Amino acid sequence: MTTPVVIGWLAGDVAAGLLGTIGAFTALYATDRPYANRAIVLAVIALSFAGAITLGLLTQEFHILALSVVLFVAVAATFLCNALRTGPPGAYMFALACAAGTAVPTGHLSVWMVGVFVLAGGAFSWCVQMSGALLAPHGPERMTVTAAAAAVARFAAAIGKPNEDEARHVAALALQNAWTALIGLQPLRAARDQELARLRSINRQLHLLFVDGINASRSGGELESIAARAKALGTEVTSPGSVPPPEPEDTDVFPRGHLGIRDSLRESLRWGSPALLAAFRVGVAAALAGLVGIAFGQERAYWSMAAAALVLHQGLDWTRTLQRGVERMVGTLIGLVLAGLVLAAGPTGLWLAATLAVLQFLIEMIVVRNYAVAVIFITAAALVIASGGQVESNVAHLLWERGSDTIVGCLIAFAVHLVTAPRALAVPLPLRIVETLAAIAAVVEFLAKGDVKSPAMRQARRTLQMRTTAVLGAYEAGVGATARDRKFAESMWPTVVATQRLAYHVLATCWSLEEAGPAQTQAVATALAANDGVAKLRQALVTISRAMRAGAKPRSLPAVPELLAPDLERLYQSLVVRDDPRREP
Questions:
Q1: Do 338 and 377 meet the contact criterion of CB atoms below 8 Å apart?
Q2: Are 15 and 388 in contact (CB under 8 A)?
Q3: What residue ranges of the chain have pLDDT lower than 50?
């Protein structure tokens, strides 16, 4: 943030340096990705910032068109950032860059020069973010594997205790993130990288320990040795050569972690997906905020639109959305006082660069721990950048406009979230559980054929893993919903646990059979297929799915293969009857 301003000051053009700080926000993204993937992501983000502000500048003289462009950027960025798991700060910064372009003072600079300066700030941030590759080329991958080792150890220690289910879910997510870093986000040439091969070997051993923990939780077993081995593997991550890579190196035997770009977009385009819902809400709220701005003659209606997008772009549940909006309003009002003091002081040159440096440092140190306090400094930094290094003639008016616009945008965001949150969206648990049961049936059909390694089977296993993860996410969204739906979500907690246990048992069976070999695989396949076992299992899962949709517990289930009978019985016993059967989930 500081360097572009210093360079602008040295070149005698502080305004150009401040424009570069918009591109410098590139450094906030992709901080945990492998460097090869990070290089691509950061380049796209830097170009996107330059493109967003250029679009804003091109429409600066056309009020309605400018607001339409801000709306388009906000919606598109929200969908893509959520669908592709870009991570914080997410879509808000792109919407803000475009919105700022509709009002930022450019003075002597042409539109294209502004874009170039923003891109230059992004390029400098790219270099800073990528500099770690010179010292630790595989640092991000090692961090994810170390985190997975710690999570597996905690899971083994939690087996048989009240927090077992939560620890299992956290361990599964940590392993999934590690596979994403080791496989899904790696270039093709990485297949010959010996250090990556070593880390993949460690993570595979961790995954097998996770499977051992799941099996031990069902039949009893030595848990201390599992936890100790996981911790030992965690320490071996930073010891090059400690674990030899498998020979020959074959990445097809490893999970890929999260979905790729194409599959992620396809999944996110399904009706009711979190990414699509967040984009829809941002679009409605930003459009309403823009219309209110036009109706009341707001000078900077984009501030209201940006505030609405900020509250909704992450797709949070109602409780966290309300908290984020209130924190934004309170922090902004206090931050306006600080911004007024800074603007009144009118720092220039190196003092301006130092001011931005201090503000950004405080933001990064505080934002995770206390968002409301961080907003105080976010507001001040945003107004300093928006000033373009020029002295504001009417600071009080500017602060009043910013405060009122923020409150209007947040209130509109609250209203949109409430109106667009029927139970089917606020508590999507029944649908997510039904999808998970269908994914279980698909995997079991492969198992009944003795297939655990084919590409189609691996895709089915990955789908089941994603569906299982989504179940707990849907539960968390439900308990964060409004009071009228929270009780319904909480009543389904036993069903959530039972569904996850069944799913993880099936996934653990797949991993165990991979290690056991063809003979054991065929024995399990024979047991599943005997007496029309697969057909009966599918019938039982369909029966439970229908019960989930109808809110009525079925009288009985058909006899299913012994391998899955205990888990399926627990799932059946966990089903609840809704208080109001007329309200379909």
A1: yes
A2: yes
A3: 247-249, 580-585
Cα angle: 472, vertex 278, 148; to 5 degrees: 40
| Separation of alpha carbons 55 and 47, rounded Å | 12
3-state secondary structure (DSSP) of residue 79: helix
Torsion sign (Cα): 151, 157, 160, 163: negative
Structure tokens at 520: 């054991």
The rounded distance, in Å, linking the Cα atoms of 57 and 169 is 46
**431: which 2 tokens?**
């649908």
Length of the chain: 585
Closest to 444 measured CA to CA, from 561, 575, 567, 571: 561
Whole-angstrom distance, CA of residue 574 vs CA of residue 497: 9
Is there a contact between 331 and 374 (Cβ–Cβ < 8 Å)?
yes
* Type of residue at 531: N
DSSP 8-state assignment for residue 225: H
d(CA 98, CA 512): 52
* Torsion angles phi and psi, residue 246, rounded to 5: -65, 145
Q: What is the pLDDT of residue 393?
A: 59
Task: For residue 47, give both structure tokens.
Answer: 């170009």
**266 SS3 class:** helix
Please state the three-class secondary structure of 503-517 as a single string. HHHHHHHHHHHHHHC
Residue 219: the pLDDT is 58
Q: Compute the C-alpha angle 459/461/462, nearest 5°.
A: 65
Residue 577, by phi and psi: left (phi above 0), alpha (psi -120 to 50) or beta? beta
**Which among 30, 25, 171 has a CA at the least distance from the CA of 98?**
25
| H helix intervals, 517-532 | 518-529
Beta carbons within 10 angstroms of residue 250's beta carbon: 9
Q: Are 332 and 406 in contact (CB under 8 A)?
A: yes
For residue 362, the tally of other CB atoms under 10 A from its CB is: 17
| Three-state SS at 432 | helix
Contact 362, 377 (CB under 8 A): yes
Question: Residue 296 corresponds to which amino acid?
Answer: F
Q: How many CB atoms within 10 Å of residue 483?
A: 8
Distance set, CA 462 to CA 77, 96, 190, 264, 362 (Å): 27, 36, 22, 13, 41
Judged on CB neighbours under 10 Å (0-12, 13-18, 19+), 579 is exposed
What is the secondary structure of 339-363 as a DSSP string?
HHHHHHH---HHHHHHHHHHHHHHH
Does the global pTM surpass 0.90?
Answer: no
Q: State the Cα–Cα distance between residues 489 and 495, nearest whole angstrom.
A: 10
**Residue 253 in tokens:** 């035997």
Amino acid (1-letter code) at residue 395: V
By C-alpha distance, which of 554, 527, 528, 533 is closest to 543? 554
Q: Closest by alpha carbon to 286, among 113, 91, 489?
A: 91
Q: Which residues make Cβ contacts (< 8 Å) with residue 319, sequence separation at least 6?
A: 480, 481
